[in-house]
Design brief:
The complex is a heterodimer of chains A (248) and B (273).
Chain A lengths: L1 H16 L1 H28 L5 H22 L1 H8 L1 H6 L5 H29 L10 H25 L4 H16 L12 H9 L1 H14 L6 H24 L4
Helix pairs in contact in A: 1-6, 2-3, 2-6, 3-6, 3-7, 3-10, 6-7, 6-11, 7-10, 7-11, 10-11
Chain B lengths: L1 H9 L1 E12 L2 E12 L3 E5 L6 H8 L7 E6 L8 H7 E4 L11 H11 L4 H14 L15 H12 L6 E5 L7 H18 L2 E6 L2 H7 L2 E6 L2 E6 L1 H8 L4 H9 L10 H13 L1
Helix pairs in contact in B: 4-6, 9-10
Chain lengths: 248, 273
């Protein structure tokens, strides 16, 4: 238990100490909110979609969680390159606790980042529909963060160095974001896009978040919740397995 | 008779039989066998890239051997990883600190992972950081440290808990003689008072000669000699261990790239062509 705590604490300290990373990762969501929100707003409204900022904000909050979580998970690669991973790997601590500690740490950082973007969205005009549902939104924020931190950790366990990082960003993380319903509604899409967004885990996270924040839903709340929860459990198991196979 | 043999085996805290590690078609460790007795100070000598670090990595569960058997404190590092990990402590050859944390935080992280009690932790962290002259810098981030300071912190951290076996991979490389001396005094004290078996690699022949009870020399992945310093001198008919070592391994000096694994990978790429 104490091992989980110290691993969690370490992730948090590292995050709070790198101010540049903290600020840098707020720039992108802000830009998306402003450029997309105000740029497509008029068209969206004309097409009968309502206020675009209201629609977009949950998607951008989820985006910032996605990026931060994947990135935190992939910090293992840095630890591998800078040698610190060895210190953790030879320790008489179960691989599962290490994986849990890291995942909780990375997820906490991602949740924090998501909340910051939530505040930024409020600053540019986003208003949650019903404050009573904020705890539900918080649950989905946590689920998205856990899911993608575990995914990042699992991927990083099998990568040798940062060379693979761009590949993962371009062919996994970006498609997950763009094809998730973060920036457009999932209704009336071409078959292929509809299929991809249905198998995309982030779609369910955003769907749940959007239900809680602006009361609009595509799948169902139960489906959103269970698919993500099961996904988290499966990914943490796979991640611990892959992590236990790391050789240095 | 059987009892006797069992007793004999019990005394060996490290047993290695026909251990081999191949990276693609490059053989980093080639069919080595040796034993280390409980309470012994054992020196493992060899040029850069001879296979020292690869061997240590296999003994400490970081690498899976291609073939061969290992017993650490009676446990198999492949099948009984957790028990093996409970049996040893290690100071790595290359950096393994988190440089976004302070010296104190690095020490605490280690203490928690190795379940060093709270009271003992405080005391020992102070004792060890003072020994390596980093106590006044304990709250500075490691990234502000010089190479030598990082090395000292690395050693202090490795000595924080008391394992059955202590692996030291070129522990005192690049340290000034005074610090080297203090660290060795501390280590040998642990060896005598708490029966910690010490397994170390070094480039300093005088260090190997002075500190160890027994020495094995590894060259190009093979153990080419094994015995006390006197035995090795006698065997090579030389006056010092240094001369003996050079006689045994051949005099050429091997270039070393970033780290031994890089070198092996590079070599395996070259061999493939």
């Amino acid at each position: 238990m104490s091992a989980v705590y110290i691993l969690w604490l370490r992730q948090l300290k590292r995050y709070l100490r790198s101010r540049a990373r903290l600020l840098g990762s707020l720039g992108q969501p802000l830009l998306f909110l402003i450029a997309l929100g105000f740029g497509f707003g008029p068209i969206f409204e004309k097409a009968g979609g309502g206020n675009y900022i209201q629609f977009l904000a949950p998607g951008i909050i989820a985006m910032s969680i996605l990026f931060t979580a994947i990135f935190s998970g992939m910090e293992i690669i840095w630890d591998k390159q800078f040698g610190f991973l060895k210190e953790t790997l030879v320790a008489p601590v179960s691989r599962f606790s290490i994986m849990i500690g890291r995942t909780l740490g990375g997820a906490t950082v991602a949740v924090f980042q998501g909340l910051l973007v939530f505040l930024i969205a409020m600053l540019i005009g986003f208003r949650p529909d019903n404050l009573v549902m904020l705890p539900v939104a918080f649950i989905f924020i946590i689920l998205i963060a856990l899911f993608f931190t575990a995914l990042g950790t699992a991927i990083a366990s099998v990568l040798e160095d940062m060379q693979g990082f761009h590949l993962i960003m371009s062919f996994l993380v970006m498609p997950i974001f763009f094809l998730s319903g973060a920036i457009f509604p999932l209704a009336n899409l071409p078959r292929a896009i509809e299929f991809i967004s249905t198998i995309n885990p982030l779609s369910y996270g955003i769907d749940g978040l959007r239900w809680a924040l602006v009361n609009s839903i595509h799948f169902s709340l139960l489906a959103d919740f269970f698919i993500l929860t099961i996904g988290v459990i499966v990914l943490i198991s796979i991640g611990s397995y892959l992590f236990s196979k790391i050789q240095i | 008779m059987i009892n006797n043999m069992l007793n004999q085996r019990d005394k060996h805290i490290i047993t290695v039989e026909n251990l081999t590690k191949k990276f693609n078609n490059f053989t980093a460790v080639d069919n080595i066998s040796f034993t280390v007795a409980e309470g012994e100070v054992f020196a493992f000598l060899g040029h850069n890239g001879a296979g020292k670090s690869t061997t240590i990595k296999m003994l400490t569960t970081l690498l899976t051997p291609t073939s061969g058997k290992i017993k650490i404190n009676g446990y198999d590092p492949i099948k009984e990883q957790h028990q093996t990990r409970q049996s040893f402590g290690i100071v790595f050859q290359d950096q393994s600190l988190d440089d976004q944390l302070t010296a104190q935080e690095n020490m605490e992280f280690h203490a928690v992972l190795y379940k060093v009690g709270k009271e003992e932790r405080k005391e020992k962290i102070k004792e060890l950081l003072s020994m390596v002259k980093l106590w006044d810098r304990k709250d500075n981030l490691v990234k502000t440290f010089s190479g030598g300071m990082k090395r000292r912190l690395e050693i202090a951290r490795g000595l924080l808990h008391t394992p059955k076996i202590l692996f030291l991979d070129e522990p005192t490389l690049g340290l000034d003689p005074q610090t080297r001396n203090q660290i060795w005094t501390y280590i040998l004290n642990k060896n005598k008072q708490e029966k910690v078996t010490v397994f170390f690699t070094t480039h300093y022949m005088d260090e190997a000669e002075k500190m160890s009870n027994r020495i094995a020399i590894i060259n190009q992945g093979r153990i080419i000699a094994d015995g006390t310093a006197q035995e090795l001198r006698a065997k090579t008919k030389t006056n010092s261990l240094e001369e003996g070592f050079l006689t045994l391994t051949g005099c050429e000096i091997k270039e070393k790239s970033a780290n031994s694994i890089d070198q092996m990978r590079m070599a395996s790429r070259l061999y493939k062509r």
